[in-house]
Inverse folding.
């Protein structure tokens, strides 16, 4: 477990000499433990609710509603999901493909762009920085962007539409640029004297030196792709191209659709489908990889936030 | 050396320029060309004419947007929600960060922080599923609990007045871990000599928190808040759409500019109206962000965006 904290490991409490009246500290600790415990429980309990609901027998849900402790335990929902996984497997496939391709391409382009903007000898670095940055201040709004993608790029119902619009993000470029600016110039200078070109310097020197920033930004990009449903909502109607989150969105809002999806995946028409617990099981299946990876990747996000959060 | 002229520079920087090319192309296609598409706000869109061939209709789209009363409603909702989010989220995040730093032990801090950061990682769709689990009229957990203690069940999805509270809570819930990490980093950066001096002067922990820790967080708070105020007319589409969806009963309390623009485009297919609302939002947003940046610049030049 790599749970993270950015504080130093010696809180001030420990530094105070014993022997004085410490009522204030005891009181503060009491407030702290109660308040933080409460917040932590509030943050985690909805997930437990979903898990327990997905494990509850359907008839119990219909009769008594969702409960934190299942009154009647059942694996029906998961059994159904794993017996007829057709659509979900496809959605997983789409999400994984989009996440892998999008993250690899996006991260490479982010790094390459940031490197050029971080080069202090590049005459137009400020002009280009402003060119990128201005897009965060002003935009044409949803409609022209939407029409551009649908009519002019003709990307509707193509996998590319799930990748392209999220490929680059100005915020990530800025964070990466500020990281790369801190790499000593002497390193690239000596390579230049040895006759290395700019692109080679970037590939062979800058990328290895930027690993921490690449890991952080890469995870941010990957999380963005994994959790994306918006581009699918706008541009995808083909069921074979639905990413996981959008598939979940469709199923949550549409019990008939869920029934149809299970049937098209091979379930029998007359089958009694546990819709409520199935919705919850589907939520768990769609979030599972993130919940599993979370303890290991959390630390990189904390790093990223503290590198570039305030100085935008 | 410097007298090589523009083309000389282009040649000198050709590799760097080539390395920039993909990103430049990306922002041209996905940001700058669509900016030219704002002319649609002044046009009667038809599919044959497209963006540039459709006939002009002056300010008709704007007139319709404003006279229907929608403009005021969605602008008010967007601004009020964002103000509430800024206040509630920051207060909670600061309180959590201070207590995590000052009051609890290392192990407890790590574990609770892991829990608090979790909501940041899940998609708004999953948050929508959680809301369904809690608030569904027939099977939702909230009504299960209410009936268990003998109260009437509440019909959340048909009652607009609950939603401001729900949405503020959801926003606080999703951003707590993320924000408290940032404030924790700021607290860690406070000079410990100040604490030692306070100690010698006999300050108790509460005095120390209110006189040293909190005042030292003001710079971070003010900058984060001003930047958030700059985005006050941008609604979080993912949140509103997944919590409320196309539930028209709730729009009076939940419709923000972004959801309105989206619906006008995709549901009612009023492209001109949608473009006009989007244009209105962009201009309003641009003006506020310039103002906010001006304020940040006055306060602390180093943290200004530009």
């Amino acid at each position: 477990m790599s749970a993270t904290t950015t504080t130093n490991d010696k809180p001030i409490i420990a530094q105070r000499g014993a022997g004085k009246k410490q009522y204030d500290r005891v009181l503060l600790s009491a407030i702290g433990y109660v308040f933080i415990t409460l917040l932590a429980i509030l943050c985690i309990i909805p997930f437990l609710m979903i898990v327990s609901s997905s494990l509850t027998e359907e008839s119990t849900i219909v009769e008594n509603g969702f409960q934190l402790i299942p009154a009647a335990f059942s694996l029906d929902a998961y059994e159904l999901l794993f017996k007829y996984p057709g659509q979900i497997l496809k959605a997983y496939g789409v999400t994984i493909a989009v996440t892998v391709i999008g993250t690899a391409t996006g991260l490479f382009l982010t790094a390459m762009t940031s490197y050029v903007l971080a080069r202090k000898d590049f005459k137009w670095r400020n002009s280009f920085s402003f060119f990128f940055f201005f897009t965060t201040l002003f935009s044409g709004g949803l409609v022209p962007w939407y029409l551009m993608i649908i009519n002019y790029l003709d990307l509707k119902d193509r996998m590319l539409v799930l990748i392209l619009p999220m490929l680059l993000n100005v915020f990530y470029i800025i964070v990466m640029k500020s990281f790369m600016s801190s790499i000593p110039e002497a390193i690239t200078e000596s390579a230049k004297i040895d006759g290395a070109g700019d692109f080679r310097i970037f590939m062979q020197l800058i990328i290895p030196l930027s690993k921490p920033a690449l890991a952080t930004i890469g995870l941010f990009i990957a999380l963005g792709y994994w959790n994306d449903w918006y581009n699918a909502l706008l541009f995808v109607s083909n069921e074979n191209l639905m990413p996981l989150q959008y598939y979940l969105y469709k199923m949550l809002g549409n019990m008939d659709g869920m029934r149809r999806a299970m049937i098209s995946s091979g379930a029998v028409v007359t089958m009694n489908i546990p819709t409520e617990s199935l919705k919850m099981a589907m939520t768990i299946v769609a979030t599972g990889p993130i919940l599993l990876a979370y303890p290991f990747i959390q630390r990189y996000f904390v790093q990223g936030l503290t590198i570039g959060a305030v100085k935008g | 050396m410097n007298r090589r002229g523009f083309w000389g520079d282009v040649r000198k920087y050709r590799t760097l320029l080539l390395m920039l090319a993909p990103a430049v192309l990306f922002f041209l296609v996905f940001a700058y060309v669509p900016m030219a598409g704002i002319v649609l706000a002044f046009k009667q869109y038809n599919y044959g004419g497209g963006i540039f061939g459709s006939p002009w209709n002056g300010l008709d789209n704007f007139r319709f947007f404003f006279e229907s009363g929608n403009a005021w409603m969605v602008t008010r909702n967007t601004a009020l929600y964002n103000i509430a989010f800024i206040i509630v989220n920051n207060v909670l995040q600061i309180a959590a960060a201070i207590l995590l730093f000052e009051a609890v032990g290392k192990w407890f801090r790590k574990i609770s922080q892991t829990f608090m950061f979790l909501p940041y990682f899940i998609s708004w769709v999953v948050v929508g599923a959680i809301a369904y689990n809690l608030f569904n009229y027939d099977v939702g957990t909230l009504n299960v609990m209410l009936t268990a203690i003998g109260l009437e069940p509440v019909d959340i999805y048909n009652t607009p007045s609950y939603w401001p509270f729900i949405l503020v809570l959801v926003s606080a819930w999703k951003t707590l871990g993320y924000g408290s990490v940032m404030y924790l980093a700021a607290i860690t950066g406070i000079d410990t000599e100040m604490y030692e001096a306070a100690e010698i002067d006999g300050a108790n922990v509460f005095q120390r928190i209110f006189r040293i820790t909190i005042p030292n967080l003001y710079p971070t708070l003010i900058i984060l808040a001003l930047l958030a105020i700059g985005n006050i007319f941008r609604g979080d589409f993912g949140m509103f759409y997944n919590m409320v969806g196309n539930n028209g009963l709730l729009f009076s309390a939940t419709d923000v500019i972004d959801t309105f623009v989206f619906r006008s485009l995709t549901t009612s297919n009023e492209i001109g109206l949608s473009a006009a609302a989007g244009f209105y939002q962009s201009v309003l947003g641009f003006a506020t962000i310039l103002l906010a940046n001006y304020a940040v610049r006055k306060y602390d030049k180093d943290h200004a965006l530009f």
Chain B touches chain A through 115 residues (CB under 8 Å). The mean pLDDT of chain B is 88. Residues 67-303 of chain B form a domain with the MetI-like fold fold (CATH 1.10.3720.10).
